[in-house]
């Protein structure tokens, strides 16, 4: 039993040595105690950098809510994109203009889906977007397109960009924005232009055609002056056709009088 008691005494003496204040440098736990503040500092710096990165990345998507007309980024669905170009194709007689190619602009282009599809369909397409990460993403995705007319993306306010040179205007707006946009369209569009509104209608304009598909609904508009002239021409043609059916003499008399009229 004596050797066991001697070993116990040796272990007790060793423990006493490690417990002395001067012996802490030789303790196995000393490196951990020194590295612990550095580890906490590194973890804190990593968390701060991650938080700043998240704020920096999310800022362009959150700041639209602070503007007068909040226009959040909501990507267009495949059904909505198909409805836009189906409506334009269906009304090709209206949307066809003398200048070739047809110049299309997407107000609030987001990730560039409408502009990308328009470029593939031989439109000369332009996207207007205020969110710079979306502008960069759109330029990157469209840079590899094999199309005749290279699409353009501009980082600017859609209410400040002139629309006088475009033939087709596509709008993915919000309800509060449609009234100011309507006034801008009436002031700047040329008579042969047309407007495709998605999700929300223009409040005071009368649509020419529409596709009702829930949140993917789209409406086609002409400027009020052009729409009124087109309706007048249609009524005139209808009256002449009715006269021709009633009696040929009435038809030729109406044509003769219309030629004599100063307008």
UniProtKB/TrEMBL annotation:
Gene Ontology BP term (one): regulation of mitochondrial ATP synthesis coupled proton transport
Keywords: Methyltransferase, S-adenosyl-L-methionine, Transferase
Superkingdom to which the source organism belongs: Eukaryota
Keyword Lyase recorded: no
Record-given protein name: Methyltranfer_dom domain-containing protein
Family indicated by similarity: Belongs to the ANT/ATPSC lysine N-methyltransferase family.
A Gene Ontology molecular function term of the record: protein-lysine N-methyltransferase activity
Transmembrane segments: none
InterPro entries reported in the protein's UniProt record: FAM173A/B, SAM-dependent_MTases_sf
GO cellular component terms, semicolon-separated: mitochondrion
């Amino acid at each position: 039993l004596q050797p066991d008691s001697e070993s116990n005494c040796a272990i007790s003496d060793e423990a006493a040595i490690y417990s002395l204040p001067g012996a802490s440098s030789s303790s196995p736990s000393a490196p951990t105690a020194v590295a612990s503040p550095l580890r906490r500092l590194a973890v804190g710096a990593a968390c701060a950098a991650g938080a700043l990165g998240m704020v920096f990345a999310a800022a362009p998507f959150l700041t639209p809510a602070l503007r007068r007309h909040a226009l959040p980024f909501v990507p267009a669905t495949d059904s909505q994109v198909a409805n836009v170009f189906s409506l334009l194709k269906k009304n090709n007689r209206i949307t066809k203009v003398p200048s070739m190619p047809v110049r299309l602009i997407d107000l609030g282009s987001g990730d560039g889906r409408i502009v990308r599809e328009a470029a593939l369909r031989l439109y000369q397409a332009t996207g207007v977007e205020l969110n710079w990460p979306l502008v960069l993403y759109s330029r990157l995705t469209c840079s590899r397109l094999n199309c005749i007319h290279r699409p353009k993306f501009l980082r600017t306010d859609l209410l400040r960009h002139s629309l006088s040179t475009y033939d087709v205007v596509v709008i993915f707006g919000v309800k509060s924005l449609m009234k100011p946009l309507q006034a801008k369209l009436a002031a700047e569009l040329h008579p042969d232009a047309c407007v495709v509104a998605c999700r929300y209608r223009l409040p005071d304009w009368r649509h020419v055609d529409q596709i009702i598909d829930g949140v993917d609904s789209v409406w086609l508009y002409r400027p009020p002056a052009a729409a009124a002239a087109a309706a007048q021409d249609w009524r005139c043609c209808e009256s002449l056709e009715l006269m021709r059916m009633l009696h040929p003499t009435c038809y030729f008399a109406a044509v003769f009088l219309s030629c004599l009229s100063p307008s």
